[in-house]
Design goal:
Bound molecules: ligand TQI, zinc ion
Number of domains: 2
Strand content: 5-15%
Structural class: alpha/beta
Largest sheet: 5 strands, mixed
Oligomer: single chain
Helix content: 25-40%
CATH class of the largest domain: Alpha Beta
């Protein structure tokens, strides 16, 4: 951890720094904002020593946190606040988790079954992709998924078009692709159930750029079915927009599922001698 610059030792008298300026003072301010967590990755690239758009966003965030007028400029009031003695710990944790967790299943063994299949993909491909999508989660947290052919299960999987008997009808091609219900007590009897819009052009072929990768969407929906909400982290499987196949979990997804279920328990079935 580097020492933050001591703003009280800067020449501050009647200075006003704003967009477009550059120099060593700007560099010190940037390093101050960085140290306390105000220069966030999501603000974009930072030009060292230049009062750029990213610096302005960080200044706005700082002003907001300290109840100062949010001008985006380093005015005397803002500089005066920065020059005050303060705690050396960051105000905004640098690696703050981006995931959200809603609710969890009480048991670590979950069952699923298929109520219907797609008209767009072969049943065997769907079964294989669902197995692989569940495995992404079960490899990283203490959950196991087993398929059942009938009877009461935790996660009911179905493909449907338009109105399909819950409160959330599908909307035809594109738009909403699928939805899943969070673990109990959310969703009542639908808890965990995962529905796919069969008006989408589902594919199991990653090089089919016209289609929507079923495994990716299934893995995202199962994230909801085990209790995760969306992540603020671009690149997380639980980030709320689809930008092509992503058949792996990001660190943030792993942190999310482990916060609910803990790391995978040591296998007792003899396969890791
Ligand atoms: N379906 C939404 C989704 O699963 C439904 C939804 C919106 C939702 N907000 C929610 C479900 C909060 C649970 C909790 O995100 S979607 C993507 C992604 C959709 C979107 O059809 O828009 C994926 C389905 F993230 F790529 F945009 C799957 Cl992977
Ligand atoms: Zn989602």
């Amino acid at each position: 951890m580097t020492t933050p610059p001591n703003i009280s030792q800067m020449p501050l008298n009647d200075m006003l720094y704003s967009r477009g300026m550059s120099g060593d003072e700007i560099r010190s301010i940037q390093s101050y904002l960085q140290h306390y967590g105000y220069l966030q990755d999501r603000f974009g690239v930072l030009h060292d020593g230049e009062y750029d758009d990213t610096t302005e966003k960080a200044v706005r965030l700082y002003q907001c946190c300290f109840g100062l007028p949010v001008s985006g400029k380093l005015d005397p009031a803002t500089l005066c606040e920065m020059a005050k003695p303060r705690c050396g710990f960051e105000d905004i944790p640098a690696m703050g988790s981006a995931f959200t967790a809603v609710s969890r299943w009480e048991q670590s063994q979950l069952t699923y079954k298929f109520n219907s299949f797609s008209t767009k993909m072969a049943q065997a491909d769907i079964e294989r992709d669902v197995t692989a999508a569940f495995a992404l989660w079960s490899e990283q947290c203490d959950l196991r998924f087993t398929v059942a052919s009938d009877g009461a299960v935790d996660i009911e999987i179905e493909f449907a078009q338009g109105d399909h008997g819950d409160e959330s009808p599908f909307d035809g091609p594109s738009g909403v692709l699928a939805h899943a219900y969070f673990p109990p007590p959310n969703g009542g009897p639908l808890a965990g159930d995962t529905h796919f819009d069969d008006d989408e052009n589902w594919t199991s072929n990653v090089s089919d750029t016209q289609g929507i990768d079923f495994l990716t969407v299934a893995a995202h929906e199962f994230g909801h079915a085990i209790g995760l909400g969306h992540s603020r982290q671009r690149g997380a499987l639980m980030f709320p927009s689809y930008s092509g196949p992503q058949r792996f979990l990001a660190m943030d997804d792993i942190a999310g599922c482990q916060s609910l279920y803990g790391p995978p328990s040591i296998s007792t079935d003899g396969d890791c001698a």
